[in-house]
Design brief:
The complex is a heterodimer of chains A (531) and B (320). Chain A is 37% helix and 17% strand. Chain A contains 18 helices and 17 strands. Chain A has a four-stranded antiparallel sheet with strand order 3-2-1-17. In chain A, helix 7 packs antiparallel against helix 8 and helix 13 packs across helix 15. In chain B, 24% of the residues lie in helices and 13% in strands. At the A-B interface, strand 1, helix 2, helix 4, helix 6 and helix 7 of A face helix 1, helix 2, helix 3, strand 5 and helix 9 of B. Chain B: InterPro entries: Cytochrome-c3_hydrogenase_C, NADH_UbQ_OxRdtase-like_20kDa, NiFe-Hase_small_C_sf, NiFe_Hase_small_N_sf, NiFe_hydrogenase_ssu.
């Protein structure tokens, strides 16, 4: 069998257009390259600007997770300026982050992921007809409900910040808003609407309280069997169909996971410092190494970037982001032996390449590390172990599992606001270094800022997509998505939908077209969308 | 039935996300009730197995009628005018755009990046970004000053960072239902129906503006954001306080100064040190006054307004 090369263009826009090249032998992918295909140069733009420029500019890096960028940008300045952030402001920032993620969950699942279940490849599955009824683009019953209702949670963001996307209501020292009874009451009501119209009747087929009793793989199986309402809810239906079509069989990736942790506790981070962050978070940070079954805390000092296979003229050494200089190469022609991406290869000094995202967060949530009061949830780790590791299917469950717990965190914020207490304490501007992190819907995000002479000297961002779609590093080691593509079966080289499932399971958010060339004849075989 | 093709250049998807928040009509309603047929959109999905490049070529050749080309994001020309820093389907996006704009009956630029260049085109503009028919306030942009789509229109600009979903859906519906000739465009090709009024029109802080009562710090429950916190509401054309965001609020209502994002100069002052969230003043007077007011009259107005300001303007008013 000749090697077939498929070029997939484009995939996912979180930091720009993403292309993927895979090689197929005997029906299986044997090699893969991910290429980020858009450079706008935000780090270059920010040099020399006002220290607060990041609050305006960085949300525009990504309109899908602008609240996450804004969170990072403001916490980075808080640590650099040594501000005091009032309790209300911590809650108001967390709430903004949470509702953006709540928006993202149905929008991503129905709008970008589940429509693939209507691919003709699955027409022999007994689930196919029902999948088309529910998930067909624009007309599917769940699609229309899910995509439309996804706009509701961010109405809460607008109550706090005026609009979503792209408010800059979080600022060093707190937030700009001072919500009233009206805002809080409406926010509760919006959450309730989201729960009673979609989460419970459509997604779960049960109450959130019943779902919260699921702690292990066995619990989940028992839940599925307990009632037709569970089995036929979108969650139950998706899970059963995914097993039927084999989504649990591929897309494992690198087997090591990272989260910065997020949602600083309102009583524990009012004097934000870089060093004090880990111990102040509700959702703990961490790295999980499945090969040794160990959890450790994550720290920004472990992060390194490598640009050997990226279009930057910055050498081949691993550097800490504070030491990055961001020199884009003028020649960005694709050379798969050398540079082929605008993404950098991000790694951990001890653990190497790591996967970021909701699956990573939920696997880390099952660790006993960190503070005793921090959030613990062993469910997804239990699934991971019972199913023999990660897959496209489990990655999806990891994401959807966050729905209920984020809902609870949103309730917590609304309950804890003390409306007549301060929302902002004016800080003093100063020079220095700052670091802010959070978890965007798609995973680990952080900003490094260095201020000198009253302006930005260096601004560096490492986004979840940077971890996931990075190219090979200086040792030739593949990035997480590149690795997840290895070994996947290609049922039909005319329409290799499996590549799409893998790319999408990491939440690449764009459609893409694949054209396969027979390596010997150059004959074009197929094109299709993967994200 | 109107065929819509939506492409993204140097974009963040913010306008797409904004568009997906649309209500009355929702995005699904547009398709089911208003005869909009989305040929392709980077994240809205379409029939599987579709051949995007063939579809693009069929649009260019006229085999598929391209009623509306929507563009989101800047046109990236780097490096050295080649556009290689933004490749799409193995070709610089600007080359696709060049071909498709000739085939489209209407071209709609959605968001600041596509209209004027937006944040990527800020100095030093590393990606050599342009808007479709403007770069900042200068007419021309990528397609040139004289560009007219097949229906005889210049690029219809729907600015904002992002654009409001209603602005987008209503223009698409106007084209699809044959109402677009009722619409007047201003000198920046913006539909006047959204951009004739000011962001300040309908702002809940207007009384404080009138009496020169200032919000001096964030998180206060009183005052106008214009005098100290750099709000551009009085100088910015938009309907943000008439057609609310996410159906509930606006930046200025929530206590955030308007950044002027529907105007070509956004982000103003190039975000130079000292210009962010701070009103730029000269001898205590704002450097930029509401349009049509001269400095002498403004000074007079200030004295009178401060003298007549009732006591309540200094008290918390947006209370719990």
């Amino acid at each position: 069998m000749p090697i077939q090369t498929l070029d997939i263009s484009p995939v996912g826009r979180v930091e720009g257009d993403l292309d993927i090249r895979v090689e197929i032998e005997d029906g299986y992918v044997t090699n893969a390259w991910t290429q980020a295909e858009l450079f706008r140069g935000f780090e270059v733009i920010l040099r020399g600007k006002d220290p607060q420029a990041g609050l305006i500019v960085t949300p525009r890096i990504c309109g899908i997770c602008g609240a996450s960028h804004l969170s990072c940008a403001s916490w980075a300045l808080d640590t650099a300026w040594e501000t005091t952030v009032p309790r209300n402001a911590i809650l108001a920032r967390n709430l903004g982050q949470i509702v953006e993620s709540l928006q993202s969950i149905p929008r991503y699942f129905y709008g970008l992921y589940a429509i693939d279940l209507t691919n003709k490849k699955y027409q022999n599955s007994s689930f196919y007809e029902e999948a088309c009824r529910r998930f067909a683009p624009f007309t599917g019953t769940s699609y229309e409900m899910g995509v439309t209702i996804s706009g509701k949670p961010v109405e809460i963001y607008a109550l706090l910040g005026g609009q979503w996307p792209h408010s800059s209501y979080m600022v060093p020292g707190g937030v700009m808003c001072a919500p009233t009874l009206t805002d809080v009451t409406r926010a509760w009501s919006i959450l309730e609407y989201f729960r009673t119209n979609w989460i419970e009747p459509v997604w779960l087929g049960c109450s959130m309280e019943r779902y919260e009793q699921i702690k292990t793989y066995d619990d989940f199986m028992a839940w599925l069997d307990e009632s037709p309402n569970h089995a036929n809810s979108d969650l139950g239906f998706y899970w059963r169909m995914g097993l039927d079509i084999g989504l649990d069989k591929y897309g494992a990736g690198v087997g090591k996971y990272i989260t910065w942790g997020y949602l600083p506790h309102e009583d524990k981070y009012q004097k934000p410092t870089i060093e004090g962050r880990n111990a102040a978070l509700i959702m703990k940070s961490g790295v999980y190494d499945s090969f040794t079954d160990t959890h450790t805390l994550m720290d920004h000092n472990f992060a390194r970037e490598n640009t050997m296979h990226s279009w930057y003229d910055e050498g081949s050494e691993n550097v800490h982001p504070f030491d990055r200089t961001t020199k884009p190469s003028y020649n960005n022609s694709k050379d798969f032996d050398n540079a082929y991406s605008w993404a950098t290869a991000v790694s951990h000094t001890n653990y190497g390449r790591l996967e970021a995202g909701p699956l990573a967060r939920q696997i880390v949530a099952g660790g006993k590390h960190g503070e005793s009061w921090q959030h613990y949830d062993g469910f997804i780790l239990s699934m991971f172990k019972a199913m023999g590791g990660a897959s496209v299917h489990l990655r999806q469950l990891g994401r959807m599992h966050e729905l209920v717990k984020l809902y609870r965190q949103a309730e917590h914020c609304l309950r804890e606001f003390k409306l007549n207490d301060p929302w902002y304490i004016k800080p003093k501007e100063k020079d220095g270094r700052g670091w802010g992190a959070t978890e965007a819907a798609r995973g680990a995000l952080c900003h490094w800022v260095e201020l000198e002479g009253g302006k930005i000297k260096n601004y560096q961002v490492v986004a979840p997509t940077t971890w996931n779609v990075g190219p090979r590093d200086s040792e030739g080691i593949r990035g997480p998505i590149e690795e997840a593509l290895i070994g996947i079966p290609i049922h039909d080289s005319q329409d290799p939908v499996e590549v799409g499932h893998v790319a999408r399971s990491f939440d690449s958010c764009l459609v893409c077209t694949v054209h396969a060339h027979d390596a010997n004849t150059g004959e074009e075989l197929a094109r299709f969308r993967t994200a | 039935m109107a065929n819509v093709l939506w492409l993204q250049g140097g974009a963040c998807s913010g306008n797409t996300m904004s568009f997906l928040n649309a209500e009355e009509p929702t995005v699904c309603d547009l398709i089911s009730d208003f005869g909009i047929n989305i040929l392709w959109h980077p994240s809205l999905g379409m029939e599987l197995g579709a051949n995007l490049q063939k579809l693009l070529r069929d649009c260019i050749s006229g085999q598929i009628t391209l009623d509306i080309l929507v563009f989101e994001g800047t046109v990236i020309n780097a490096p050295n005018g080649t556009g290689e820093w933004n490749r799409f389907a193995d070709r610089p996006m600007k080359d696709w755009l060049n071909d498709l704009s000739k085939a489209a009956n209407f071209v709609v630029a959605v968001g600041d990046c596509a209209t004027w260049g937006g944040i990527p085109a800020m100095s030093p503009n590393p990606s050599q970004s342009q808007g479709l028919q403007f770069l900042k306030r200068k007419e021309g942009g990528f397609l040139g000053k004289d560009f007219r789509s097949k229906a005889g229109f210049p690029v219809i600009n729907i600015p904002g960072c992002p654009a409001h979903p209603d602005w987008i859906t209503q223009i698409l519906v106007a084209i699809a239902t044959g109402r677009i000739n009722d619409i007047t465009l201003d000198e920046l090709h913006r539909p006047e129906t959204f951009f004739k009024t000011f962001t300040q029109t309908g702002c809940t802080r207007n009384m404080h503006f009138a009496y020169k009562a200032s919000t001096t710090e964030f998180g206060q429950r009183k005052g106008c954001l214009f005098y100290d916190l750099g709000c551009r509401g009085p100088m910015t054309h938009s309907s943000c306080n008439r057609i609310l965001w996410n159906r509930v609020s606006s930046k200025t209502r929530a206590g955030m100064p308007c950044l002027g994002c529907t105007e070509p100069e956004f982000p103003f002052y190039n975000l130079q040190p000292g210009t962010v969230f701070k009103t730029q003043t000269l001898l205590g007077v704002p450097k930029q006054l509401p349009p049509g007011i001269n400095a002498k009259d403004y000074a007079l107005l200030t004295v009178v307004a401060k003298d007549t300001a009732p006591k309540w303007t200094e008290e918390d008013i947006f209370t719990v």
